[in-house]
Automatic annotation (TrEMBL):
UniProt KW keywords: DNA-binding
Lineage: Bacteria, Bacillati, Bacillota, Clostridia, Eubacteriales
One example GO MF annotation: DNA binding
Domain HTH cro/C1-type: 5-59
Protein name: Helix-turn-helix transcriptional regulator
Length: 71
């Protein structure tokens, strides 16, 4: 799954720490989401979506792998 979280966060001039505090998660969680090392829970995805007032699909982009398996 691709993430536009870093792009959206930076456009709002927020640090990872600021966003983490607002969402009540660790800065490491934000970093991992931005670097694709972690996919958010549905609850966290909704919290992020609500915080930025955009659709989940505008932040997290699902992509299938070329062999048809899920990413």
């Amino acid at each position: 799954m691709k993430s536009r979280l870093e792009e959206i966060r930076k456009a709002k001039k927020l640090s990872q720490d600021d966003l983490a505090e607002a969402l009540q998660v660790s800065r490491q969680t934000i970093s991992s989401l931005e670097n694709g090392r972690y996919n958010p829970s549905i609850l966290l995805a909704f919290k992020i979506s609500h915080f930025f007032k955009v659709r989940i699909e505008d932040i997290f982009i699902y992509e299938e792998e070329e062999d048809g398996e899920q990413a």
